[in-house]
RNA sequence: GGCCGAUUCGUCUAACGGUUAGGACGACAGAUUCUCAAUCUGUAAAUAGGAGUUCGAUUCUCCUAUCGGCUGCCA
C-alpha cells in the first residue's frame, strides 16, 4: 500500500466557477503528485444534474491551465481510465450499487420526497433532527421492511427507488488522516446516505467517488475539510466493497475563510470586499451577474499560485517566494495547517507586486500592449518594455502600469492642479527656462549624464534642486510623481523633452510669485 | 440541537516540554531620494479561559468558551 504509485485527483463539480479554495486544493494535489513523480488526474464530478452549470467545466480547465496545473489524465487529455466525466460512467455505478444491495450493505428505499419532507418537519416540530437510520429504515418502505416479492413488484412496475447505505447501528470507525491524525467516529450518529438516486439515475458523490477512486487507483485523496464528516461512510464503503486494503490515504485540507466576519469564503465576498474570489472572470451564460477574476485584475499566475500555496501550508523556513518548481520540491502534507485560513487581500497584493517587480518588461509588455492600444496609444514592444522597466516598481498589478506608461508615450493634455499650485511658481518657471537651455545644449539626453550635468549646474547656481525637478516633472508628464525625471527625459528623448517643456510654458504661463 | 474539527500578534504563520515566543503582510516611525513608489532600518502587536501532568508547559490530558464544517435523491 505504501509502495503504490502516487496517483491523486482533483475532482470538481461543474456547478459554477471554481473558487480559490478549489484552486488551492488542485494546487496541493498537483504539487504532491509532481513531488512524488506520480500522476495528477482531473475528474469531473457532474452527478448533480440539477445544479449543472453550462460553461463551468470549461472554466475549470482554463483556470487550471492559467495556474500552470497540467493534468496527466483527465477529461481533456484522456487516459487509461477514461471516461473521466462521471456522467459518462453511469452504468459502472449502477453495477456497484447493486452489488452492495446483493451483499447486504445497502438496500432499496421507495420513500417519496414528500414523505421525507413530512418526517423532517415532524422531527423539527419536536425539536429534533430527522435521521434516516437504523431506527426508521425498517418502518419505512424499504427492501428491509417489505417482503422480497413486493420489492421486486415495485421495481418491475417502475416505482421510483433509491439505494441507501445500511449504516451499522453502533460501531466505532477508526480513521487516519495525513493532516489530522487519528480520528474515531461512532456510526450511531450517522444516517443511511443515498448512494444511488432515482431522480436522474446517477450515483451520489459518495458512491461515485469511492468507485472511481478505486478504479482509477487513486493513492491519496487530498480534499477540503468539508468532507471530513463523510469520511466514516467512505471508510465503510471501501470495506463493503472489499477494497479496504487498497483504499487511498486521506488528507483533509483546512478551509479558506472570509477576510472579515464569519464563515468560509463564498462567491459573494469578492464584490463586497473588493477582491476576486475566482481565478478568472466568470461570465454566466444566463446573463446573471459577472464575477471578477485574478487574471483580469492583473495578477500574474505565478504570484497567484505562490500566494495560494502559502495559505494553509508553510515550508518551515522563512522563504516566501516560490517558483512552481520550488513549491514542488518543498511541499509537504506534514506542514499543512489544521485551522482554517483567512484570506488576505493585502498579502495577495504584496505577492503580486513582488512578482511584477521581478518580471522583465518584455514579458509585461505583452500583456500591456493590447491595453495601450485600447486607449489609443501605439508603441513598439521594445519601447513599451523599456517604459515598463522604468515604472514597474511603482505598480502592484498589471493595469497599474497603464496610466504610468501612457504618460511616457503621450504628452500631458492637462497638468495636475495640486502639483501646479505647488511648483509652478515664477522663480521655478524662470529656473526651468534656464534648465531648458542647459538640456538643449547637450548633444543628447542620457539619464546618468544628464543627471550629473544638471546636478552640477544646480549646485553651481545654488538653485533649489527639489523644486526645480518637480517643476520639470510637472512640465514633462503633467504630475509630480513617477520615476526618475532623468530616466523619463532620456526615454522620450531630447526633442520631445524640449517640446513638452515648451508646451507647459505656453499652457501654464509664467506662474505666480 | 447532534456529530466532527479547530484555536499563537489585526491577518498568514514558526517554535520535534526548556527561546528575550521568531518571520511575513498590514500599521506606525526613521533613512534614502528630484516626487510618488520601491528599498533599507526600527517600533507596537499574540500563546482564548480554567484545571491538571511535569523540575518546567504554546507544546500533553480534561473542562469551558469561541469559531468552523457537516447534519439533502448537493458536491
The rounded distance between the terminal residues' Cα atoms is 85 Å
* Binned strand content: 5-15%
- Report the principal-axis shape: elongated
Please, what is the average pLDDT? 93
CATH C-level class of the largest domain: Alpha Beta
Annotated CATH topology of the largest domain = Rossmann fold
Major sheet: arrangement of strands: 1-2-3
CA radius of gyration is: 32 Å
Query: Which CATH architecture of the largest domain?
Result: 3-Layer(aba) Sandwich
Based on secondary structure, the structural category is mainly alpha
The main sheet comes to:
3 strands, parallel
Proportion of helical residues: 40-55%
Q: Uncertain segments of ≥5 residues (pLDDT<50)?
A: none
Q: Could you give the count of β-strands?
A: 12
List the domain count as a whole number.
Answer: 4
- CATH-assigned homologous superfamily of the largest domain: HUPs
Descriptive report:
The chain is mostly helical and 513 residues long. 44% of the residues lie in helices and 9% in strands. The protein folds into 4 domains: 1-73 and 254-358, Rossmann fold (3-Layer(aba) Sandwich), CATH 3.40.50.620; 91-196, Glutamyl-tRNA Synthetase, domain 3, CATH 3.90.800; 360-409, Orthogonal Bundle (Helicase, Ruva Protein, domain 3), CATH 1.10.8; 411-513, Arc Repressor Mutant, subunit A, CATH 1.10.10. The strands form 5 sheets. It has a 3-stranded parallel beta sheet. A 3-stranded antiparallel beta sheet has the order 4-5-8. Strands 6-7 form a two-stranded antiparallel sheet. The longest helix is centred in the first third of the chain and has 16 residues, at 20-35. 37% of the residues are buried. The mean pLDDT is 93. The protein binds one RNA strand of 75 nucleotides through helix 4, strand 7, strand 8, helix 6 and strand 12.
Amino acid at each position: 500500500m505504501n509502495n503504490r504509485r502516487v496517483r491523486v485527483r482533483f475532482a470538481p463539480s461543474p456547478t459554477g466557477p471554481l473558487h480559490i479554495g478549489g484552486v488551492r486544493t488542485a494546487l496541493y494535489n498537483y504539487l504532491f503528485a509532481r513531488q512524488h513523480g506520480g500522476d495528477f488526474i482531473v475528474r469531473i464530478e457532474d452527478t448533480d444534474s440539477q445544479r449543472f452549470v453550462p460553461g463551468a467545466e470549461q472554466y475549470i480547465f482554463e483556470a487550471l491551465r492559467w495556474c500552470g496545473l497540467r493534468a496527466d489524465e483527465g477529461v481533456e487529455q484522456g487516459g487509461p481510465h477514461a471516461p473521466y466525466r462521471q456522467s459518462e460512467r453511469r452504468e459502472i455505478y449502477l453495477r456497484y450499487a447493486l452489488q452492495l444491495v446483493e451483499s447486504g450493505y445497502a438496500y432499496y428505499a421507495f420513500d417519496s420526497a414528500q414523505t421525507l419532507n413530512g418526517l423532517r418537519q415532524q422531527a423539527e416540530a419536536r425539536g429534533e433532527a430527522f435521521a434516516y437510520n437504523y431506527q426508521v429504515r425498517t418502518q419505512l418502505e424499504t427492501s428491509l421492511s417489505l417482503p422480497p416479492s413486493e420489492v421486486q413488484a415495485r421495481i418491475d412496475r417502475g416505482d421510483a427507488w433509491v439505494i441507501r447505505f445500511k449504516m451499522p447501528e453502533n460501531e466505532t470507525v477508526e480513521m487516519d488522516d495525513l493532516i489530522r491524525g487519528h480520528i474515531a467516529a461512532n456510526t450511531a450518529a450517522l444516517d443511511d446516505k443515498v448512494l444511488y438516486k432515482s431522480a436522474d439515475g446517477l450515483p451520489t458523490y459518495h458512491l461515485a467517488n469511492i468507485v472511481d477512486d478505486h478504479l482509477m487507483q487513486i493513492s491519496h485523496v487530498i480534499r477540503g475539510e468539508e468532507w471530513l464528516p463523510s469520511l466514516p461512510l467512505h471508510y465503510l464503503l471501501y470495506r463493503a466493497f472489499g477494497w479496504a486494503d487498497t483504499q487511498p490515504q486521506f488528507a483533509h485540507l483546512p478551509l479558506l475563510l472570509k477576510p472579515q466576519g464569519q464563515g468560509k469564503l463564498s462567491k459573494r465576498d469578492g464584490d463586497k470586499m473588493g477582491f476576486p474570489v475566482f481565478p478568472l472572470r466568470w461570465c454566466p451564460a444566463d446573463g446573471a451577474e459577472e464575477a471578477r477574476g485574478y487574471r483580469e485584475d492583473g495578477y500574474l499566475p505565478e504570484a497567484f499560485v505562490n500566494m495560494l500555496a502559502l495559505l494553509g501550508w508553510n515550508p518551515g523556513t522563512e522563504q516566501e517566494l516560490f517558483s512552481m518548481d520550488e513549491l514542488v520540491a518543498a511541499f509537504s502534507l506534514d506542514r499543512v495547517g489544521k485551522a482554517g485560513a483567512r484570506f488576505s487581500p493585502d498579502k495577495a497584493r504584496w505577492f503580486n507586486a513582488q512578482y511584477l517587480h521581478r518580471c522583465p518588461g518584455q514579458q509585461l509588455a505583452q500583456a500591456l500592449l493590447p491595453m495601450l492600444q485600447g486607449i489609443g496609444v501605439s508603441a513598439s514592444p521594445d519601447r513599451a518594455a523599456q517604459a515598463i522597466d522604468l515604472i514597474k516598481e511603482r505598480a502592484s498589478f498589471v493595469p497599474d502600469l497603464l496610466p504610468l506608461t501612457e504618460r511616457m508615450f503621450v504628452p500631458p493634455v492637462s497638468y495636475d492642479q495640486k502639483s501646479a499650485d505647488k511648483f509652478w511658481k515664477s522663480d521655478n518657471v524662470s529656473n526651468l527656462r534656464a534648465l531648458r537651455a542647459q538640456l538643449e545644449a547637450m548633444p543628447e539626453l542620457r539619464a546618468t549624464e544628464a543627471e550629473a550635468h544638471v546636478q552640477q549646474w544646480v549646485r553651481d547656481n545654488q538653485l533649489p534642486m527639489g523644486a526645480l525637478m518637480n517643476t520639470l516633472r510637472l512640465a514633462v508628464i503633467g504630475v509630480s510623481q513617477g520615476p526618475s525625471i532623468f530616466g523619463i527625459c532620456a526615454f522620450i528623448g531630447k526633442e520631445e523633452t524640449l517640446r513638452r517643456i515648451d508646451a507647459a510654458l505656453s499652457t501654464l504661463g509664467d506662474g505666480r510669485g
